[in-house]
Design goal:
The complex is a heterodimer of chains A (384) and B (319).
Chain A: E1 4-15, E2 18-30, E3 35-39, H1 46-53, E4 62-70, E5 73-74, H2 80-86, E6 91-94, H3 98-101, H4 108-119, H5 124-137, H6 143-146, H7 156-168, E7 174-178, H8 186-203, E8 206-211, H9 214-218, E9 223-228, E10 231-237, H10 238-243, H11 248-255, E11 306-307, E12 315-316, H12 322-333, H13 338-347, H14 357-360, H15 364-383
Chain B: H1 2-29, H2 35-40, H3 46-56, H4 62-76, H5 89-93, H6 97-124, H7 129-143, H8 146-157, H9 180-213, H10 217-224, H11 229-241, H12 243-257, H13 261-266, H14 272-281, H15 285-313
The chains are: A alpha/beta (384), B mainly alpha (319).
C-alpha cells in the first residue's frame, strides 16, 4: 500500500471575484522512502495540494473534495484534532523562507523542542537534547551552543537546516518540502538538497518536493509530476521527464532552464504568456493559449491524463497524437526553436497544426488574452 | 546596556531643563494674568502691587528669574514657592502624587484587562458577530469624551446625585494607607471612565496586530508542527502582536502619571492634573513649572523603561 494516495483532489476557494479552482482533480501516490517532485509555475496549485494534505487549507471558504489516504486513513474525513496529531508527527513540512517561517522571539532549540513535546511525552530537558541532536544531524556546528541562539543569529542556510531539524525531530513518515531552496543562495541550495537526500535515506522518509525549478528535483526525485492550472499535465519517472517528456508545457519548462549536458551557447527559451486565471480557465486544454502546437480542436476538448503507449507509468494530458509529440520533442532536443520545430514537423505532411495563432491572432479569445497581456506588461513596465 | 541607560539619562536631564525653559518662556511671552495682581486682593494700591512684585521676584528681568529658578532646582532640588500662598511647590505637589498614581495605575489595569482579551477575541473570531459587536462597542468607547462620560457616570452612580447611588465617586478621595475602603470606592468610577477610551483603542490595536501576525509564515509553521490552536494563538501569535502594545502602554502611562487633568477635574480627585489645572487658572508659575516637570519626568522615564524592556521582549533588539 502506498504511504500517501491522493485521489481526485479538488480544492476550490470561494472569493469575491469568483470560485478559484486552485486544485482541480489531482491524483498521485507516494510510496515509503520515495521522493516525488511536483513542478509548476506559481498558481499551478502545487503548494495548495500539499498544504491540503496537512489540513492547512481548511477554511470556511474552501471547498475540498476527493480522498487523501495517508497510511490508509482518509485525512479529508479526519477531525481537526485528529489531523493536528498527524501534523508535525507523521507528516512534517518545511517552507520556502526559513527566516519568516521561524518565530523571531523564540530560541531555535526551543522551537524544535516544542515540536517534540507536542507529540511526545518527554521532559523539557529530553526535548532540548533531542533538539540539539537534530541540529547536529543537519550539520550545524556546535549544536548545543547554537540551539541557544535566535533565528536572526543564523545564516539563511542554517535557518533552513534548523527548519529541517524541526520537521524531522519526530521522525515523520512523510516530509513535504515547499520550495525548500528558493529563498537561498545558489551555493547553499545544493547543500540543502543533499541534506534532505541524506536524511531521507537515514530516516527512510518519503519526500514530496514542491518547486518551480526542475533543476531542484533533477537529482533527488524518483517521480516527477508537472502541474499546470490546478491539474497534473504529465507524470513520469524523473528520468523520463528529462529524457522523453511528452507534454509541450514540460518541454517549455525544460527549455527554460540551463543544462550542463547541452552546449553552453544554447539559448534559453521562455514559455510565452502567463499562467491562466484560476477563476476563468481557458476552455479545452488549459495550456492551449500558450501552446505553440495548438490545433483548433484543443480549444474545445479537455485532454485526460492517460498513459503513453510505451510506458504505462508515464501519464500525459495532451491532445496531440504521440507520433507528433515524438517528432516535435526530437526537433526541440536538436536545438530548434518551437517555431522551427512546428514548421519542420508540418513539412513531413503527416502533422497538421493550426496556422501560427500567436502571429495571426485568428481566435478572438486568444487575441483578447494577448491584448490583456500586453497591457499588463506595459503597466508593469510603467510601475517598474 | 548600562552605557545606553546612562547616556539616555543624561539626555533626559538636558531635555527636562529645556522643558522648564520652554514653560518659562511661554509664561513670559503669553502671560494669562498678572500674578501680583491676583495675589493683591481687592482694590490694591500700586505700592502694594509693587511690593508683591518685589517679594515674588517679578521685578527682575525674566532671564534672571529663570536663572535663579534653575539654580535652586539643580543645586537644592528646590521647586520654588507658590505665587498664591507662598507654600513650597514641593510640598504642594508631592503629597498629591499618590492620587494621580492610583488613578493611572488602576485605570491601566482596567483597560488592559478589557482591551487585550477583547482584541484577541475579535481577531480570532474574525467576521463573526462577536467581532462586529466588540469593534462597534470600541468605536463608541473611543468617541465618548472623558468629561462627558465622567459626568454621565456621576449622574447615574455617585452617592450624592446619582440615580443608582453605588460609589462615593466625587471629592471623597483618601490615601489607601489612611482609609483603604474609601480609596477604593472613590476610584472605581474614575478608573472605569478613564479606562473606556484606552480599552477601546487597545482592543482595536490588539485586534489589527494579531490579524496581521496570524498571517505570518511562522504561524503556519506553528500549525504545521501540530500545536493546538490555543497555543498557536497565545504563544506564537499574541507573543508577537503584543510587542507594539508595550510601547504605547509605556507612553500612555507616562502621560497619565503627569496628571489625568480631565478625569481628576471631573471627579474632583486631588492629583497632579487637578493641581496643574488650578495653578494655570491662577497664573501660578512655580506650581505650573512643578507639575510640568513631574509630567515630563514621567514621560521621559517611561520612554526609557519601554526601550529597555524592548531589549528583553524582542531578542532582535540589542543596545
Amino acid at each position: 500500500m502506498a504511504l500517501l494516495e491522493i485521489k481526485d483532489l479538488t480544492v476550490h476557494f470561494a472569493t469575491e471575484d469568483g470560485l478559484v479552482k486552485a486544485v482541480d482533480g489531482v491524483s498521485y501516490t507516494v510510496d515509503r522512502g520515495q521522493t516525488l517532485g511536483i513542478v509548476g509555475e506559481s498558481g499551478s496549485g502545487k503548494s495548495v495540494s500539499s498544504m491540503t494534505v496537512m489540513g492547512l487549507t481548511r477554511a470556511p471558504n474552501a471547498h475540498i473534495s476527493g480522498e487523501i489516504l495517508f497510511d490508509g486513513q482518509d485525512l479529508l474525513q479526519a477531525s481537526d484534532d485528529e489531523l493536528r496529531k498527524v501534523r508535525g508527527d507523521d507528516v512534517a513540512m518545511i517552507f520556502q523562507d526559513p527566516l519568516s517561517s521561524l518565530h523571531p522571539f523564540y530560541k531555535v532549540g526551543k522551537q524544535i523542542a516544542e515540536a517534540v513535546r507536542t507529540h511526545r511525552d518527554t521532559s523539557k530537558a529530553q526535548a532540548w537534547d533531542r533538539a540539539v541532536e537534530m541540529l547536529g544531524l543537519v550539520g550545524i556546528p556546535e549544536p548545543r551552543r547554537r540551539a541557544d541562539a535566535y533565528p536572526h543569529e543564523f545564516s539563511g542556510g542554517m535557518r533552513q537546516r534548523a527548519m529541517i531539524a524541526m520537521a524531522l525531530a519526530n521522525d515523520p513518515k512523510l516530509l513535504i518540502a515547499d520550495e525548500p531552496t528558493t529563498a537561498l543562495d545558489v551555493t547553499v541550495q545544493a547543500q540543502i538538497l543533499e541534506l534532505i537526500d541524506r536524511l531521507q535515506d537515514e530516516f527512510d522518509t518519503a519526500v514530496v518536493v514542491i518547486t518551480h525549478d526542475l533543476g531542484v528535483v533533477a537529482e533527488t526525485a524518483d517521480d516527477i509530476a508537472v502541474m499546470y492550472a490546478g491539474r497534473i499535465v504529465e507524470k513520469a519517472s524523473a528520468d523520463m521527464i528529462f529524457h522523453g517528456p511528452e507534454h509541450p508545457y514540460t518541454w517549455g519548462l525544460l527549455r527554460s532552464i540551463p543544462r550542463l549536458d547541452t552546449p553552453r551557447d544554447e539559448e534559453l527559451v521562455p514559455i510565452a504568456g502567463r499562467p491562466p486565471s484560476l477563476i476563468t480557465l481557458p476552455g479545452g486544454c488549459s495550456f492551449h493559449p500558450r501552446c505553440p502546437y495548438v490545433r483548433d480542436a484543443h480549444r474545445r476538448t479537455e485532454p485526460g491524463l492517460v498513459p503513453t503507449d510505451a510506458d504505462p507509468q508515464h501519464l500525459v494530458a495532451c491532445l496531440l497524437d504521440q507520433g507528433t509529440r515524438r517528432r516535435l520533442w526530437g526537433q526541440l532536443e536538436a536545438g530548434e526553436t518551437p517555431k522551427e520545430a512546428r514548421a519542420l514537423a508540418m513539412e513531413d505532411g503527416e502533422v497538421e497544426l493550426d496556422t501560427d495563432v500567436a502571429e495571426a491572432g485568428t481566435e478572438p479569445g486568444a487575441a483578447a488574452a494577448r491584448a490583456m497581456d500586453t497591457a499588463q506588461t506595459a503597466k508593469e513596465e510603467e510601475a517598474g | 546596556m548600562a552605557i545606553f541607560i546612562i547616556r539616555r539619562l543624561l539626555w533626559s536631564v538636558v531635555l527636562l531643563v529645556f522643558v522648564t525653559f520652554l514653560t518659562f518662556l511661554i509664561f513670559v511671552v503669553l502671560p494669562s494674568a498678572d500674578p501680583a495682581l491676583l495675589r493683591a486682593g481687592r482694590n490694591p494700591t500700586p505700592e502694594i502691587i509693587a511690593s508683591i512684585r518685589k517679594t515674588l521676584g517679578l521685578d527682575q528681568p525674566w532671564y534672571v528669574q529663570y536663572f535663579k529658578y534653575l539654580r535652586n532646582l539643580v543645586l537644592h532640588f528646590d521647586f520654588g514657592y507658590s505665587y498664591q500662598n507662598f507654600l513650597s511647590v514641593k510640598e504642594t505637589i508631592f503629597p498629591r502624587m499618590p492620587a494621580t498614581i492610583s488613578l493611572a495605575l488602576g485605570g491601566a489595569v482596567v483597560w488592559l484587562l478589557i482591551g487585550i482579551p477583547v482584541g484577541i477575541l475579535s481577531a480570532v473570531k474574525r467576521g463573526t458577530f462577536i467581532e462586529r459587536f466588540a469593534m462597534g462597542a470600541a468605536l463608541v468607547g473611543i468617541s465618548a469624551p472623558v468629561y462627558w462620560l465622567g459626568l454621565v457616570s456621576i449622574y447615574l452612580f455617585s452617592t450624592d446625585i446619582g440615580k443608582f447611588p453605588i460609589f462615593d465617586a466625587t471629592g471623597n478621595y483618601a490615601n489607601p494607607w489612611d482609609d483603604f475602603g474609601r480609596w477604593l470606592s472613590s476610584l472605581i468610577l474614575p478608573w472605569i471612565v478613564l479606562a473606556v477610551s484606552f480599552a477601546a483603542i487597545y482592543a482595536r490595536f490588539m485586534r489589527s496586530n494579531l490579524i496581521e501576525v496570524l498571517d505570518e509564515d511562522y504561524i503556519r509553521t506553528a500549525r504545521a508542527k501540530g500545536l493546538v490552536e490555543r497555543r498557536v494563538i497565545l504563544r506564537h501569535g499574541v507573543r508577537s502582536a503584543i510587542t507594539p502594545i508595550v510601547t504605547i502602554f509605556g507612553l500612555d502611562l507616562g502621560i497619565l502619571l503627569g496628571g489625568a487633568i480631565l478625569t481628576e477635574t471631573v471627579f474632583n480627585i486631588p492629583g497632579i492634573g487637578r493641581t496643574a489645572f488650578d495653578a494655570i487658572q491662577k497664573s501660578d508659575l512655580p506650581v505650573v513649572q512643578g507639575t510640568v516637570l513631574i509630567g515630563a519626568t514621567a514621560i521621559v522615564l517611561f520612554n526609557l523603561i519601554v526601550d529597555v524592556l524592548y531589549g528583553f521582549i524582542d531578542p532582535r533588539v540589542r543596545y
